[in-house]
Structure prediction request, 605 residues.
Amino acid sequence: MSPKKGPVRLSDRVYKSLSALLGGSAFLFLFLVIAVLLIYSYPSFIVNGVNFFTSVKWDPAISSTVVSVAGVKAMEGASYGMLVFFIGTLLSSGLALLIGAPLSLGVAIFLSEFAPARVSTVASFFVELLAGIPSIVFGFWGFIVLGPYLLKNVEPSISRFLGFIPFLGGHVYSYGLPTSGIVLALMIVPIIASISRDAMSQAPTDLREAGQALGMTKWEITRKVVLPYAKTAIVGSIVLGLGRALGETMAVAMVSQSAVNIVPKSLYYPINSIAAFMAQTLDSAFTDPTSMEVYALVELAVVLFAITTIINVLARLLVRQGFITSAEHVVQV
Amino acid sequence: MENQSKSAGVQHEAEETPPASGEPIIELTDMGAFYGAVEVLRHITLSILRNKITVFMGPSGCGKSTLLRSINRMNDDVRGFRVGGRITLDGQDVYAPEVDPILLRTRVGMVFQRPNPFPVSIYDNVAFGPRIHKLAKGRAQLDDIVRESLQKATLWDEVKDRLGKSAIDLSGGQQQRLCIARALAIKPEVILMDEPASALDPGSTSKVEELMVELKENYTVVLVTHNMQQAARVGTNVAFLYKGDLVEFGPAADVFENPKSPLTERYIKGML
Ligand SMILES: Nc1ncnc2c1ncn2[C@@H]1O[C@H](COP(=O)(O)OP(=O)(O)O)[C@@H](O)[C@H]1O
Ligand SMILES: [Mg+2]
Prediction:
């Protein structure tokens, strides 16, 4: 029937190979990134070994002498330990999630289920506006307003009244950890809230009406129908938000109070994160004549990459195995 | 075999029906409905009798669903929706301020045009309502409610071996009977059905029709359909709605064999 059979087929083929190329290029980029990370971190793996994962001390020993370790040049007495940054990254992102995820879900549930249409439209716009604020602005706000306020007015009270809870007691040294957590929380709220809201509002009307006709309240419909329907997207949005928090560089660099060689023993310590420390240190690392500090920073990047990958995989398993499904979703009998 | 004898029973039903008499459970008095400024139902006055099947028929858009959804207040959240006149259940105005729509809906269940089981197991679908309303003390009681509801919906024999399997894998007709079982599980008095068979194949349709006739032994059934044959087969009383007006209301046999209004007559002859 079609007189244009030939050309149609040709364009089909062009389209197919083009999309295969573009699809394949994603894998290629990923492969290249991993390859570069591994190549540039290899000398650090060789020289620093297990010490990298167990040590708190990061000291390039820049004015000592060059020696050769296992055939790789390094400064004598230098120590590259990731623990301060690893722990700081997990603590600040964990705190961000602890604050940000419930807040985001609350916002999403309100916008999708309870707010009148007009309010929802306006409020959704502001939530998305929040997502567009550059991280340096968040950083400045944390540095100038939030951090000093927490240090002066909030942390002493928490320490006094909730000090019996582990990690919340003790002397107040710094606003680094809570400020990082709160700033990161605000940065991930728009991500989690807007994706979750979209997923919730897509819960089919006929399922909502099924619940309504069974005499369920709006809140019960939200919990038993809407949330189970949207749970995959919600977990996905949380992982996305967590990824953002783990990798956030500038804001954390500004408010963490840049800890080195010290692991936080309470909420009131300065911290540092992998990404923030890398940005702070890269410049001076190039003054290391053996380049070992650069290699060690790349190894930090490998660790960060590993953390986000593991979290992604765990989230996928969580959704698939139904750990977080509601009781109604667990197949019974 | 069994199906055929039941179908025969259904056929008889319409013919044997006495004139509209019995105990009213739901009464509409000068009832009207508006979406915003648009009046879609006006001056509807009629009684729905206990343990009977009352059918609303009429062309698409005449207000059948709106009428049905006004009874259990499903349109409460629709912006600009308003009901005028009175709708009473056992003499109580269902729109009175002291009436809790949640409780009302536990007394007046609903089945929809498109089967809408939850994407969970067959068991959990039926157990949904009883769990929400805490109707069962313990697992054994819940099991009983689920079994009885599925039996009443004539689905038990088909699913008893796979209660834990997903409801989504059932056929359309089975899904609709599951939705009926789900509605029955919270022990309503009235069941509203909005074109419950219009998305089903003929075999499933006749199963659902048989089921409706069985249900009226214990429940009051209100059926919306645009299928005249169905209305004639199962209806005790039949209402014909046209563009928001109640044109005719009476025993099924009268409405179909001896319509009072020329409009009804034309509708029955397929001329509307
Ligand atoms: N949510 C709504 N908002 C505004 N108008 C509506 C809404 N639902 C139905 N209508 C209108 O009300 C009238 C009756 O609709 P409906 O009760 O669904 O009729 P039926 O079920 O008989 O097909 C139609 O004109 C329809 O367009
Ligand atoms: Mg309708």
In short: Chain B has eleven helices and ten strands.
